[in-house]
Design brief:
48% strand
Length: 355
Amino acid sequence: TNLTAVVANALPPVRLGDAEPESRFDPDGTITLVIDTGKIGGAMAGDLIGGLIARTYPVRQNETLRSDSASDSVTVALTYQLVGNAFCQNPPPPPPPVPDSGRVHGSGFLEALPFDDGDANDTEHVNFTLDARVANGDLTGKLKLHDFEMGIKIDADQITGLAAGGGSCNGVASSIEGGFELTASGTFNGTPGAHFRVCGEDNGNPGKGNTAHGPDRFYLECLSGCNYDTASRTPDDGIDGGNIHLHEPIAPATAASTATGPQVIDLQPALLTDVVAGQPVVLSAVVEAPAGEAVGGLQMTLHHRRADGSTGATTATADALGIAVFVVTALPGQTTYWVEAGELDSNRITLTGGL
């Protein structure tokens, strides 16, 4: 079996040449066809490729049967945007209109499925922080995700869409009252130009759920510029720590919050990983109440757990801005940090202390 590319509808077909060695057939039936950009007019990232069709044909005695009647399957001709040298994808959909108001804020983690990478000290967490709001008729905020074991870091500083729930979120219906959906743009493992979709649900405090309600839900998927989604890494979308809170209703659909007390603890820097053992590291925890106001004077406890199972804790009090600062000494190897205040806890940060 071989892989070739031809110009569609050209008579006779124009051969572009052999596909690159990176082309392959995957066990799941996916065919990846890699073509050097020099063979298609020097296409560059951001270019649009119109009317792209993928078609498979049977082969008889090493002779390809290219008549329409001999076609095994054919895709619909669509317009694709060249994202990089590795793959083409559909351009991201246009963002929805900016709502009149709304803010969704949260941090936490999902327990991940085991990842067999030969590491005896696996840290199977998918950590996230998000803050998307309407301010002066525009969208602002951030989205960060760190899948430690997979080496995935998402850092999106541009919120491009925000909407109430009511649709499907990873195959599960979300409510109009507590659900949300947002889109964002930023970097994927340091490479700019990635676009993401997040959906989920605020089911109450604490975010991991209790006997009165289920857990908050968080799901992320890449729209373009990357290949990742949390569904492939977690057994479900229910968060296992932290909290997601609709500080302001996403007008006109979501309901105003009736919660009281601290709602979200955001531990930063969320994407920090590599540190020098023995050197000081500054971690800051920001706590907010239902309407987004700071919670000054709240005592928070920073916990840590090392790869060998040993633990420790230290406390600090939030200042008038709701910020508690912890200065810790970086420990050798892997150490995971998080903050707790009552039933509320934060996202996790795993640091690797080296020389």
